[in-house]
Amino acid sequence: MKNPYLQLQTSAWYELAESGWQGLKNSNHGDLPHWLESIDSLPEGDGYHQLDRDAPELGRPVADPALLRRELLNLHPWRKGPLKLGGVKIDTEWRSDWKWNRLKPHLDLKNHKILDIGCGNGYFGLRMLAAGAQLVVGIDPTMVFVMQWLAMRKLGPGLNNFVLPLGIEDLPSDTPGFDSVFSMGVLYHRRKPVEHLVQLKNLTRPGGQIILETLILEGESKAILNPSGRYARMRNVHAIPDLLVLHYWLEQAGLSNTKVLDVSKTSLDEQRRTDWMTFESLRECLDIENPSITIEGHPAPTRAALLIQVDE
User: Fold this and answer.
1) CB of 186 within 8 A of CB of 214?
2) Reduced to 3 states, what is the DSSP secondary structure of residue 261?
3) Terminal-to-terminal C-alpha distance of the chain
4) Does residue 219 surpass a pLDDT of 90?
5) How far apart are CA 2 and CA 10, in angstroms?
6) Contact 5/164 with Cβ under 8 angstroms?
7) Residue 133 · residue 109 · CB < 8 Å
8) Which residue from 97, 127, 165, 228 puts its CA 20 to 30 A from 118's CA?
């Protein structure tokens, strides 16, 4: 396996790129040989890409789309998208384009160097590049998502969009500050949410911005949901605040310049099973008779997106 981070190692984020390479090279995931075999079988792209669309395109249409489809399906489950790779449309679990289109009108990313925490396969990084970003470094410890990024990179090489097999706790202590830091779908998985927000602030350059997207409770009554078990079948959901509590957490972290960009209920059309993600999805996580609650009896998912300016 060649080092896919050589392009990043020539930047100020050399140490981060090296940490990513070591994490990838030393992985002992049992499926890794199978995944790498599928990636090796993919055709090398010539750099063709079209990113400014709901389903970014990487690579020109291949001669045998059925074969390409089979190899890409070996990297199941595909959660973030949609994508079009080598002419093959990947209908992912999430209509991530809907989330992006809610955020896009509020963001100025021109020439930004961006950190995307919990980035999945790097779908949002492609959209960020299309919006003018200079560099996107994504981190996600889930190895199959890194494999999907490797497949995307083989079909569409050369893009300044990277996915490293790291969690936020793995980042070098002296990681340089980014112009924008995205944390989408991460906060409620952290045992210490204020500590996570402080980490986001420390990873952002003075005068930069944080884009935070997370589950919330509707209403403003200083409420927090601390599920004793799972939430919508998800493990490790520790705290879901309402907006008042979320703003209080941000203030505790030294982040007071905040703006709510969007609040949206997650619909069954936005998150669902597809041929590319055949495991249980949102429909299986809601009460059959009352879809306004989860199968555990909690409020169904509502998500908020906030833009936070870091003081200079």
Assistant:
1) yes
2) strand
3) 42
4) no
5) 16
6) yes
7) yes
8) 228
Rounded-to-10 torsion of CA 78, 84, 89, 90? 10
C-alpha span between 310 and 300 (Å, rounded): 31
What domains appear along the chain, each with residue ranges and CATH number? 18-309 (3.40.50.150)
Q: Is the pTM of this model over 0.70?
A: yes
Q: What pLDDT sits at residue 180?
A: 98
* Structure-token match 């078990």, residue found: 229
99 in Cβ contact with 184 (< 8 Å): yes
Once rounded to an integer, what is the mean pLDDT over residues 30-51?
96
At 272 the pLDDT is 98
**Partners of 115 in beta bridges:** 137, 181
Residue 135, exposed/middle/buried by CB under 10 A (0-12, 13-18, 19+)?
buried
The pair of structure tokens assigned to 7 is 């392009």
Residues 16/175, Cβ–Cβ less than 8 Å: yes
Q: How far is CA 195 from the centre of its chain?
A: 20
Q: Whole-angstrom Cα distance, residue 264 to residue 270? A: 11
User: Burial code of 90-129, b = ≥16 C-beta within 10 A, e = fewer?
Assistant: bebbbbbbebbebbeeebebeebbbbbbbbbbbbbbbbbb
Which helix (H) or strand (E) segment holds residue 23: the answer is helix 14-25
Segment 221-269, tens digit of pLDDT = 889 999 999 999 999 999 999 999 999 999 999 999 999 999 999 999 9
